[in-house]
Amino acid sequence: MKNAIVIFNVAVLMLISYRLWHVDKSSLKNFFWPALILKSIAGISLGLVYAYYYTVGDTFVYFLDGIKLAELARSDIGTYLWFLWSGDESFYVWDQLSYRQPRAMFLSKITSVSCILSGENYWIISLHFSFISFLSAWTLTKKIVEFNDDVRPAAILAFLFFPSVVFWSSGVIKESLALAALFFLCFIFLKVWLHEKPGIAQWAIAILSLWWLWNLKYYYLAIFLPVAITTLIARYLFSKLALEKLAAKVLLWMFVFLIPLLLVSILHPNFYLERFTQVVVDSYNQFLAISEPEDVIHYHSLDSSLSSIFLNAPWALFSGLFRPMLFEAQTIFQWFIALENLLLLVLVISASTRLKLLMISKHRLILFSIIVYTVVLCVFLALSTPNFGTLSRYRVGFIPFLVLVLCLENPLISRFMRSKWMRNLVR
Length: 427
Prior knowledge:
Layout: H1 2-23, H2 32-52, H3 58-75, H4 77-86, H5 102-118, H6 122-147, H7 152-161, H8 163-168, H9 174-193, H10 200-216, H11 218-241, H12 246-265, H13 276-290, H14 306-322, H15 332-351, H16 355-359, H17 364-384, H18 388-394, H19 399-407, H20 411-417, H21 420-425
């Protein structure tokens, strides 16, 4: 029976995938199967890494908690559905769960639905999550290319093939669904930017994405929403006020940015202005206590004062983007991270030769917004999550957007796209 369920799940995923590929008329069609297969392999590989390399793995805890909730569904569907909506310690299943922290339990609830559909097969659930993540990345990539075909190489690399983005947004982890939600919200943003009206189904998925992202990675959303809203408002104000000077536009953007940022700050206790910096420092100290000295970013006398935060921000930005470096790598996974960081550094250096072109781009408002989102989220994550391994996973919330900007008009990427292999693939 379980084998039949596995075959059925794989067949359904293949049928949906084939249908999506068959009806696709975009210039990206040849990348569909390579990107989907890579995503699926990454999800399976993530499970294998946690099973055979790491001593502990939250991915399997989500799975085991999902099984317990699936058993509740089979015995009492009413209680199960109510627990999905408002599960707390009043339910008898509460004491059976390993993860009771809200964000972790939220993923366990979603995993339980996939447990029911897959016959409680971890690897099929991994394929479910990876497929959802792929569909969102594919949808956003197609929209970006539709918006501007010149960015096609950058979008393909950033959202479909960049190593850490593919790996850490696959399988049974929070980042899979969080990035799926984030990418779909970016898709809706682009539709609004292009004066297109999202359909009812797209608005419904957008609302679901807001809910998912807030419950899984609220800090992604707490930065993305103010940036997106500010960018839309700023474009309207620029046209009404007929501003021409770049400095005036930047100042207006930053002023408008403060309003949604303050509104978001009241939505979660960790973002309350009176305690935000203390939360960051407390998180830093917790990671410092449980990590090996060579595995973390060390800051100079970091405390909760704004002056200390700002003084350490440049080092946090550099470390969040480029560390560990090759000479700091101690394990095989740190070597992989260091190699990717080296690639990022090369992209930054090569992109700097085209900085002036980006400054005069007709899309510079969006590019500026991406840079602000990347810098703010990178600094926040590097300060509060200084462990190199954990940071490499969390930073996928901004890495694809950074890679997109770095690859625009980048001579290295242009040369790669002119290679014979790539020319054959994009035909």
